[in-house]
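Sat 14:20. Reprocessing the chain from the morning session after the first attempt stalled halfway. Input below, unchanged.
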Amino acid sequence: MPDNDLGGRSALVTGASQGLGLSIAKSLAAAGADVFLCARSRDDLAKAVLEVEKASGRPGARVIQAACDVSRPDQVAALASEALAAFPGLTVLVSNAGIYGPMGKIEEVGWEEFTQAMETNLYGPILLARAFLPHFRRQGYGKIIQVSGGGATNPMPRLESYAASKAAVVRLFESLALDLAESRVDVNCVAPGLLDTRLLAQVIEAGPERVGEGFFRRMVDSKDQGHLTDLGIGARLCRFLASGASDGITGKLISAVWDDYEDWPNHLPELLRGDLYTLRRITGRDRGTGWGDK
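Finished this time. Tokens:
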């Protein structure tokens, strides 16, 4: 992709003070975009702004920040108002803020923690979409990029709130993409791979008693053996989805690690005709069992 493929565009990135969100913000800025950073910690945001400004390589780059808890409707409304005042032509919304939520047997974890994970991981993206969609519809163009992850496609025992919220948000945005099909607003979900972030650290710190021996061992082994995905790989996918090169690609769950997404614009009719790269049910005939289907 060209170095300036996002020149003239502006983006809002949630969960942008650290980890993948910060990496995405830096990648967008380096590609020429002005960026609005959002996270809960004002102190962390102040540090992130300096990193994103440096990554942009442009003296006149605009990098703005505001603290926001995306699970709070009043705060999301205020964020949208402030972001659109700063960037009236905002074209990109990257919804990255997320938490693992409680870890442990579902009948033992705190209900408040469980609902908080659902509010952040599912209701937060809904609130953000509701806040920015009127602007994108009026503008006749927009990009909504939702970070999902492995929780959407794999059962995660003892992390049920995380798995449920991530699967739900993917189906939510697949549905929204169809609703927006004629509006030139593309909506996609991103699976960035297993990352060395605070979420991984939380799983390892929780230990096998809370997250289960198998999952704990996989996480520890992945970290010890270096089988983790570089943050830049997911950030590169988000940069592609924020650019005009991805126009028309919508309603997909895209793996930053495994999918040859940069070639997809050459296959748009086939890509959009069916259920490629979406959540779906696996039937017996899909696995060649010879039973289970009429």
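Strands lie at 10-14, 34-39, 63-67, 92-95, 142-147, 185-191, 252-255.
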